[in-house]
Amino acid sequence: MKLRSFATTLGLAVTLIAGLSAPARAARGITIKGSDTMVILGQRWAEAYMGASPGAIIQVTGGGSGTGIAALINGTTDICQSSRAMKDDERKKLRDRYQTLGTEIPVARDGLSIYLHESNTVKSLTIPQLREIYTGVITNWKAVGGLDAPITLYSRENNSGTYVYFKDHVLLGRDYSARCQTLPGTAAVVNAVARDPNGIGYGGAAYAAGVRECGVQKATGGPAVLPTEATIRDGTYPITRFLYFYTRTRPAGDVKKFVDWVLSADGQALATKVGYFPVR
């Protein structure tokens, strides 16, 4: 899957302002913070909603899912965008501060692509092979049917929901190899792999421009599946996930109106246009 041409610098604030004064923005605006994977999607949703809702003000910033969840707990954002589910200790902090466990709202589906350089001869990898590559057991492409060359590992930073999801669901909680290079944002991972014939990375399927997506097998002998709309929606692609909004309490007022629009046919169609998939 390729990201439709909505280029932006991930990890930096994307502020969308509809022209009201600062006091009006503070009084009436909605703040959204979190996942870098979702920041472009959040931006497009905000732009479309503001265009259809005169007077609506929405500010979207990235920084990572963990950063967004921390902002939700600290009361500095209305909505957290997260590419992973909240952890138990994060929910406990919400409960201790607000007497609530928060509200989880799945808003889109995504697949985690495995990025390879376009010259890489490896066509598919199993989940166990990916686990051994990213934990440092397999260090040469020859071990998985490729050329005799060292594998260069690229990953997201540990405040990223993508980093956590990959660790939990692919590495099964094991530590990443010390050789793994962590980068600030999916775009940085894609750019690194695109320049490195021996590189491997992972990230949202919508961002895989300039690299080759590797087929993924659940186990040896199983079918190699690429992340497509069909395989992500039906769950046959092995690394498929939901993307979430989190709020401290059940959405109300302007926040509820925006969330309802995101889950509407128009909002879900826009998610597909950007490169993600409807939640239902």
TrEMBL record:
Q: Which GO terms describe its molecular function?
A: phosphate ion binding
Q: Which UniProt keywords apply?
A: Phosphate transport, Signal, Transport
| Gene Ontology biological process | phosphate ion transport
Q: Which domain of life is it from?
A: Bacteria
Signal peptide boundaries: 1-26
Q: Which residues form the PBP domain?
A: 24-265
A Pfam family annotated for this chain is PBP_like_2
What InterPro entries does the annotation carry? Answer: PBP_domain, Phos-bd, Phosphate_ABC_transporter
**What family does this belong to?**
Belongs to the PstS family.
Give the protein's biological function: Involved in the system for phosphate transport across the cytoplasmic membrane.
What's this protein's name? Phosphate-binding protein
